[in-house]
Amino acid sequence: MRSKTANWYECSIRYEKMMEDGKQKKVTEKYVVDAVSWGNAETMITEEMSAYISGEMTIPDISRPSYGEIFFSEKDGDDKWYKVKLAFITINEKTQKEVKTRVYYLVQGHSVENARKNVIEVMETSMIDYEIKGIVETKIMDVFEYKSKPTHS
């Protein structure tokens, strides 16, 4: 597992997809891109998807997600994305009471239980106490990380 913190944007794209029965159907799919702005996110998703889509593609929505960090799996079969809610547990110095701070992550896995194991694997290197409060499968198809363009001198 590896994790990456970035400026993530969720992009919905709409296009005509060839279905298994050979018929064309308008579909909307969600992808995540690492970008510096909404405009950059639109450019990135258009470039990434143009290799896979022939014909017209529209981008009906781009939004900032509640997570800032993604846990990537290198294992074959970990082809789904899960939104995981953790509660970080700290002690308030003045009141000596427990304080729980909610944090969200996007985690790659093949099942809810596998996503839970992947979170534990990443978090076991952390010194902070936490509880897993929820794991939900998302409709995200893929995540595209930022690639710097080669510079020509």
Task: Give a short overview.
With 153 residues, the protein is of the alpha+beta class.
Describe the structure.
There is one protein chain. The protein is of the alpha+beta class. It is 16% helix and 49% strand. It has a five-stranded mixed sheet with strand order 1-5-7-6-8. A hairpin with a 6-residue loop joins strand 6 and strand 7. It is elongated and about 60 Å long. The two termini are 36 Å apart.
The separation of the N and C termini measures: 36 Å
Which strand-content bin applies to the residues? over 45%
Rg calc? 18 Å
What's the helix count? 2
- Mean pLDDT, rounded to whole units? 92
Q: Give helix % range.
A: 10-25%
Write down how many β-strands occur, each being a DSSP E stretch of 2 or more residues: 9
Unreliable stretches, pLDDT < 50, 5 or more residues?
Answer: none
Indicate how many domains the architecture comprises: 1
> Which structural class fits the helix and strand makeup?
alpha+beta
C-alpha geometry? elongated
Q: What is the H-and-E element order? A: EEEHEEEEHEE
